[in-house]
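Private note to self, pasted from the team thread so I don't lose it. Backbone tokens:
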């Protein structure tokens, strides 16, 4: 019907049928097919003089096309940004309507570090008292608070979102909001935030719940999203085998379905894990390839993580100066975008690369470590604080102050609420033991 009406030059009559056909395609995760239909519906309407009916149809089409483009091409791809920005501008000139909420949400997704945009969505949802809108308002808020490093607030929003999710059937939201399910995302965010806060066993539990729920949904975008979020958590834990396994799965899925954004992330993580398990040259090449693709299609929130993974490989190859330059150059822009999640680690690794490139740069490195420590403490991020303490303590020992090194390790490790035997913690406890400390991991 849509095809015949379009060929008859009746785009307004064709549009509802394109929307119905595209909705059915999205339900089957057939993104390429759905995008083709939605483009076919939208293009002739954009060429016509705007009327009330045409604008309404354009907004209905954009509400589906935006998440589909984001899922297939990435939220930062030029076509995605243009579509979402245009739809947002159309919405701004019209009376508020709950049907526009997915478009406002997509506009937030273009700048996922913006607490202002996330708070605006929450206020809009509260004013209407709509449970579905409240769920998705919490959704963008847990993401924004995670991105800026407000981990406790991230957890509050994610737990509130999960409670909302359980009051109804919101699985269809995956087609409207970021091409992924809110429950999958909440558990994935909690796996990352709880790791930062040292609640390590809770983080592992939410990691598993994100993967399990995504498998039950059998929605492609949600499965890909779960893999991407939990890959980041597994990289935090330095579980190389798990990273390689999940990255392989992610790359296979995204290659099969042409999903550029998450596929690039898979290459980055797999390259890093390959490098750490014996093949740094091959691993670096794969990471660099993935990072180049990521910058073209994705938003920036994970760039600090990727710069640190790259630095780790280059340091192992004896090229810390290659790692150092982009970390210094990109820091102002990343801070300007309010990124906080991985900034303590970016500062710490920058200090480590300085020392590796020039062992005499102790004062500059010490300053970076102190800055990283202050930031991690303000975030309550005990896991990154433990990494920072280890870097500081090693520098203290090198400069002959073993007592200061021991004090640092004692303070950092005593702040950990849980122990999971991961590589970071084993390394920290071992170094503390070498300093003469007899610290035991927390129990219970």
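Design output:
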């Amino acid at each position: 019907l849509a095809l015949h009406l379009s060929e008859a030059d009746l785009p307004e009559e064709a549009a509802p049928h394109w929307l119905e056909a595209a909705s059915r395609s999205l339900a089957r995760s057939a993104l390429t097919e759905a995008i083709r239909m939605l483009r076919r519906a939208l293009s002739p309407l954009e060429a016509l003089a705007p009327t009330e009916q045409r604008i309404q149809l354009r907004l209905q089409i954009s509400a589906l096309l935006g998440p589909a483009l984001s899922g297939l091409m990435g939220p930062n791809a030029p076509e995605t940004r243009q579509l979402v920005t245009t739809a947002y501008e159309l919405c701004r000139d019209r009376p508020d309507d709950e049907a526009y909420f997915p478009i406002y949400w997509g506009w937030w997704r273009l700048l996922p570090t913006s607490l202002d945009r996330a708070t605006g969505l929450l206020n809009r949802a509260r004013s209407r008292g709509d449970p579905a809108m409240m769920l998705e308002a919490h959704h963008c808020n847990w993401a924004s608070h995670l991105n800026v490093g407000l981990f406790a607030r991230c957890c509050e929003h994610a737990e509130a979102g999960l409670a909302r999710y359980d009051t109804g059937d919101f699985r269809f939201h995956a087609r409207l909001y970021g091409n992924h399910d809110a429950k999958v995302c909440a558990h994935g965010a909690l796996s990352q935030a709880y790791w930062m806060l040292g609640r390590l066993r809770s983080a592992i539990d939410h990691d598993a719940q994100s993967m399990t729920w995504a498998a039950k949904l059998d929605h492609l975008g949600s499965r890909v999203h779960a893999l991407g979020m939990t890959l980041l958590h597994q990289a935090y834990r330095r579980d190389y085998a798990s990273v390689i396994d999940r990255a392989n799965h992610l790359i296979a899925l995204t290659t099969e379905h042409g999903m550029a954004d998450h596929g690039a992330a898979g290459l980055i993580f797999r390259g890093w894990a390959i490098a750490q398990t014996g093949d740094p040259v091959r691993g670096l090449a794969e990471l660099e390839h993935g990072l180049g693709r990521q910058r073209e299609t994705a938003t920036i929130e994970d760039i600090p993580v990727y710069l640190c993974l790259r630095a780790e490989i280059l340091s192992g190859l004896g090229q810390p100066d290659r790692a150092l330059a982009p970390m210094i150059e990109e820091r102002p822009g990343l801070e300007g975008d309010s990124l906080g999640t991985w900034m303590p680690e970016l500062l710490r690794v920058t200090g480590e690369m300085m020392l590796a490139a020039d062992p005499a740069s102790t004062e500059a490195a010490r300053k970076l470590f102190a800055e990283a420590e202050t930031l991690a403490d303000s975030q309550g991020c005990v896991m990154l604080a433990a990494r920072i303490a280890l870097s500081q303590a090693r520098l203290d020992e090198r400069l002959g102050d073993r007592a200061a090194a021991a004090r640092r390790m004692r303070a950092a490790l005593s702040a950990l609420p849980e122990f999971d035997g991961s590589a970071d913690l084993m390394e920290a406890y071992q170094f503390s033991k070498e300093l003469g400390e007899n610290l035991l991991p927390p129990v219970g």
